[in-house]
Amino acid sequence: MFKETFGVESELGDLQETTREELENRLYTRAENLFKEKEELYTHDALYSVARIIYLQTIDALWKDHLRTMDNLREGISLRGYAQKDPKQEYKKEGYNLFATMHGAIGGDVLVKASRVVITTETQEDYEARLEARRAKQQKLMTRGPAKKEAQKPQTVKRQGVKVGRNDPCPCGSGKKYKKCHGVSDALNP
Question: Which of 36, 103, 115, 153 is the most buried (most CB within 10 A)?
Fold first, then answer.
């Protein structure tokens, strides 16, 4: 389990003759040595940046899970009233327990993620090659074809006749008002 969590083998020796406290101490010192090795490999600023990112991501994910769990709790808490328990007090108690569980899980998740971190440094040549590839891609996109013309302003549609009022006689000569004759079809088909 130590290997699954931290990604390294632990030299625990014979587990039959060790007590729980001794085992905890061995595992703790092994994990502590693992982090000291990482401190020697990487700069303090790099480790601090990575740790900050891991903390934020972990807290964000666990907080979202906590909020979803609280929503589920809120939906089901009313059933506690049937058991002659105050739903409000039960909600407070369960909510606090869920928060405490989430708070405790943050440290463990961060520890697991931080133990598996491998920071790679990019050489100057790799950086320049990546930058040059990006510039070439941008240049290719810019020279692909003629630039798009500016969007032309839409032309306003102009009426080709005299505006007929709704209450004026219809120009078809039927003698009806425009709104009762051809105005009906114009209103339905704008």
Answer: 115
- Domain range summary for the chain, segments of one domain joined by +: 1-41, 44-141
Going by C-alpha positions, the residue among 182, 146, 151 that lies closest to residue 164 is: 182
Q: In what helix (H) or strand (E) does residue 165 lie, and over which residues does it extend?
A: none
Per-residue pLDDT of 15-53, as tens digits, reads 667 788 887 787 778 777 877 787 777 777 888 888 899
Q: Which residues contact 174 (CB under 8 A, 6 or more apart)?
A: 181
Structure tokens at 152: 């032309």
What fold characterizes domain 44-141?
A: Helical scaffold and wing domains of SecA (1.10.3060)
Single pTM value for the model: 0.52
Residues 45, 46, 51, 56, CA torsion sign: positive
Q: How far apart are CA 122 and CA 120, in angstroms?
A: 7
Using one digit for the tens of pLDDT, what is the confidence trace for 80-95? 888 888 889 999 999 9
Q: What is the CA radius of gyration of the chain?
A: 36
User: With contact defined as beta carbons under 8 Å apart, do 26 and 9 qualify?
Assistant: no
